[in-house]
Design brief:
Length: 88
């Protein structure tokens, strides 16, 4: 079964899962962020594109920067300094 390839199958599967209580519909979401995909955020972090910071909540951006997650590099720190710090 390939629900994404056959919309009718996907809709039937969705209705079945909702009817069985396996899926709960979301009613409290922010439509303005539905265009943001994690793969795009991760790509921007790795490419040192600061635009990613506006794609996540401020608390998440701070944690990513503080813990240097997902390949984040501080643009104010030179590559040599970052390499030296990582290899102590």
């Amino acid at each position: 079964m390939y629900p994404l390839r056959d919309p009718a199958t996907g809709l039937n599967l969705f209705r079945h899962l909702v009817g069985q209580g396996r899926i709960k519909p979301l009613d409290n979401f922010d439509e303005s962020v539905l265009h943001i995909f994690s793969r795009d955020v991760l790509k921007r972090i790795k490419e040192n594109d600061a635009a990613w910071e506006h794609m996540v909540p401020p608390e998440v951006a701070e944690m990513v920067k503080h813990r240097q997650l997902f390949g984040y590099r501080d643009p104010e720190v030179s590559d040599d300094a970052a390499f030296a710090a990582a290899n102590r």
